[in-house]
Amino acid sequence: MSTIAVELAGITKRFPGVVANHDIDLAVRKGTVHALVGENGAGKSTLMKILYGMQKPDEGTITVDGEQVVFNSPADAIARGIGMVHQHFMLADNLTVLENVVLGSEKLHGIGGGARRRINEISDRYGLGVRPDVLVEDLGVADRQRVEILKVLYRGARTLILDEPTAVLVPQEVDALFRNLRELKAEGLSVIFISHKLGEVLSVADDITVIRRGTTVGTAVPSETTPRQLAELMVGSELPTPETAESTVTDKPVIQVRGLTVHAGGGAASDRLTEPAGAAASAGPGLPAGDTAGADGTRRVLDDITFTIHAGEVLGIAGVEGNGQSELIAALIGLKRADSGSITFLGQDVTGWSTRRLRELGIGYIPEDRQRQGLLLESPLWENRILGHVTERPNAKGFWLDPKGAQEDTRRIVEEFDVRTPGIDVTAASLSGGNQQKLIVGREMSHDPKFLIAAHPTRGVDVGAQAQIWDRIREARRAGLAVLLISADLDELIGLSDTLRVIYNGRLVADADPATITAQELGSAMTGAVSGHLEHVEESTDNATDAAAEDEAR
């Protein structure tokens, strides 16, 4: 039996109007991966903030290596060997890996040769494969995550808290992360693993603690538990059996994109453009090769994108983050100008239209980064209800805002979408990530959009909320909603999509049939390989052209 590395006993934390943690117990053994699971709002984040010194408990004790401690800040936790890798990475893109790692810890090994040697030593020891002199903006998501892990190890962490570490990784990257975790375990380090992906939890964890509604409700042995049993322990009841999905695709085109091309640095965007993660200068094996530079020498972040989405259809886009998904979303929602190509919505050319006009016309938008793009974190929930729909009912009457209408509808969304909150006047920042997501989904679905851009719609939400969001999308699809689904959850893409396309280096390079493709095959295609269940996009170009001609004829 391993000795205890970290123990939390009787932890209670109260906030005005809510008890976030109530008498929670958690014991993490040395040299193990301990999974912490629970619904959104169950108290996981609060508990980890207490362990990391970001908040102080009202009751209970923390013991590290057999000694009771009190943390007044993250610096105190770091000094006792606690490190945390947040779901949203804390890296400066314009700095190198070395500069990010040593930032704030210059006294440990300096900022030059000593720091570089230590980084290389840690990287080699745990198989992280981190290069100190590479700019962070040139790294893919999985490499950035390894930099975050290296950062906490550099500071002497012996217990690592990983918050949703696989949320944006493809299957091959998840396998690599789990290999890294096994290396950490072999060296006697401990990992607290927070995730809503229960299959992964069961495959990587040595122990599992389940919390529900702010308190510990049980533990589970991975080898003796199924994902469904774990989910039911989390929610406190049996989960409904999923219904067999039937096709709802019609022949009515809702959104038609033709030859959409965007160059790096061109147009206006809401966020900084990044280099494509995992994309090489030329296409990967089995994919079409070609020049991706524009006439002015700039790189094409989107290269001749063409597709049609019909009423009742979900088109899924699979790709490693940074391969053009963000730019595609920005172009479709009016946040970025395309250099060439056209966008037709319900038969009307809307190329170059403003975001407000597109929203009023019936385009819904679930953004990929809820905190940066979807919410005003320091504003109350009812004000966040208004975002993106400032001219529409129930948020407005004529030319004037209608706060009362927005407040009443926010209460409806909170109840209907099970947003865990003490009230609508609390700030969005006070909600857990999953409850923030449910608020956004509720807001967007409340306006009966004709076309929904859904970017990672269930990222960071629990299994119950995930099923609820999926059901909402399926219900709206049956009523004729067209959906562009972009997600890092390959099971979500396969399960929800009627049609699947793979984006790589700014191009749609392959088509896949959701009925036959596996997550492993899809993950391989995302990193540059085409399997037997995928088709080169050129092979289906004629079909796309024929479909466009048929659409115009109608």
From TrEMBL:
Q: Does the keyword Repeat apply?
A: yes
Q: Which Pfam families match?
A: ABC_tran (PF00005)
Compositional bias ranges of the Low complexity kind: 276-290
- Quick check: keyword Transport in the entry? yes
GO terms for MF: ATP binding
- Identify the stretch(es) annotated as Disordered: 266-295, 535-554
Q: Which residues form the ABC transporter domain?
A: 6-238, 287-530
Keyword entries, A-Z: ATP-binding, Nucleotide-binding, Repeat, Transport
From the Swiss-Prot or TrEMBL record, give the protein name: ABC transporter ATP-binding protein
